[in-house]
Amino acid sequence: MNRIITVVLFICVFFIASCASVPKQVEQSSSPTPAHTEKAVTSPGVADPLLYYNYLMAQYFRSEGYIEEAIKHYKIATTLDPDSLMLRFDLTTLLVEAARYDEAKQECVEIIKKDPRNLDAHLLLAAIYTTVNDKAAAIEEYKAMLTLNPEYEEAYIYLNSLYCELKDYEKAKQNLNEYVKIKPHSPTPYFYMGRLYSQEKEYKKAEKAYLKALELDPRNESLLMELAVFYEMQKDAGKAIETYKKILSFYPSHVGARSSLGRLYISEDKLEEALIQYKQLENLVDNTDQVRLRMGLIFLEQKKYDEAMSEFTTILARDPVNDKARYYLALMYEEKGELKRSLAELEKIPRESSVFTEARIHMGYIHERQNQVDKAIELIEETLKVKSDDVILYRFLASLLEKAKRYEEGIAVLRKALVLNQESEDVYFLLGVLYEKAVKPEESITQMQKVLQINPENADALNYIGYTYADQGIKLDEAEAMIKKALQLKPQDGYVIDSLGWVYFKKGEYKKAIKHLEKAMEYSPGDATILEHLGDAYLKSNAREKALEIYERALQLDPSRETLKQKMEALRSSVKE
Fold it and tell me: How far, CA to CA in Å, does 143 sit from each of 118, 133, 134, 154?
């Protein structure tokens, strides 16, 4: 406040001095320069000291961020000099800054009345119309600008943006085609044409437009990055990689391109190439934590545990509260089989961390691996006391209760999860599984049908219902249709192929059953149920020796199958006879 008083006193002293001696006005030019051609406008002369005083006060208050005070002084100044377009324009920009759009619009209109060719005023008025969502009026202003100056590139760009927002793609194309005619050697209209075609999902035309833009400006960094991202969106990793490499050939220190290239190499499972990029990134960024984290994850994927540990511990030495580094360090210890050390690191992750839920679930997995399911259940129940709105925790707890054969408790937990999210496919699916294990088959089917209401393309739910019908020997045609749909979605899933084979078995079509069950065994050779199904189909086809051989393989995989043992005893007796 003291500073403001000092400045005001200084301006007042200047004001008094200027009143005492007013210099002769400089003679004005007979041909005034339009505001749109001369951006740097000088301050008012001192012929009117009061005008100059208010102008200085407005400038000062604006520089200090006191917008309303600045507006007040500008308004006084424009009253003293109503013909000054510079003062009106400055006032208008301040009114926009203060979100006083109606007043700003009126000031712009007044400027344009006095100087219809003032492109700056047209541009500002169009921006005001856009801000208040009057797109039609904004479009008319940009058109007016192009009538005044057909080479005004900003107008074409803003018009294109408005047409695209209105989804009037034909007018957007016409606008850009006019832009091309005016500026045939400019890459900019082709750049926006590429975006436009991309929005319309005309991807070949979009690529052609982007490449034309690059032909006109081959080293344009923004264009190259846009094209690389476009290729990524098209799932064309090869072209995206080549484009990022081209960027780096021009700009070796481009952090965005190098980071994206490393990420793409990881997605393509080219881990060594990714490492090369991240090692170079270390020299380009001030904070290397994210780079080291990526490198640590690559080493973890490659099972290079010492290298992974080195990256994670280096991060933690510099930043002990980096929870992601600690989380991945814990995963590394788990991979190495050092479960106690893994648990110790996971335990350190605080509840406010973004990876707290994942850490607790991983602790539960470790307890489960150690056959301490009750301890895992207790841990997740304690976690839910502080994270009661996390559906993932409820699902994991329900899966643990399923393993402990506490099916009714698991069902109750999932019911709580549905209060939080009534559209969760995963919750309904697991609920269906638990109802089946609780020997409530009708309720199980109901839950699976709810999954399909949310997502008719859920292959697991389709297969589950189809297999259940087949196993019960009911609705076999419906079961076949559902399983075939699931198979279209998961053509190489051994369990779905097994279900279709089992439908044919139940229909008495044993040749078809054997064909599909043999195929299922190829995809899932370690599943005892599939082998038992195949043995049953062989037996029905009188291939008894094959059936016995397959049954023996199934029993080796799961020695607890009592019904299978009985089948084998009966089969051995019949073979002897």
Answer: 14, 17, 15, 11
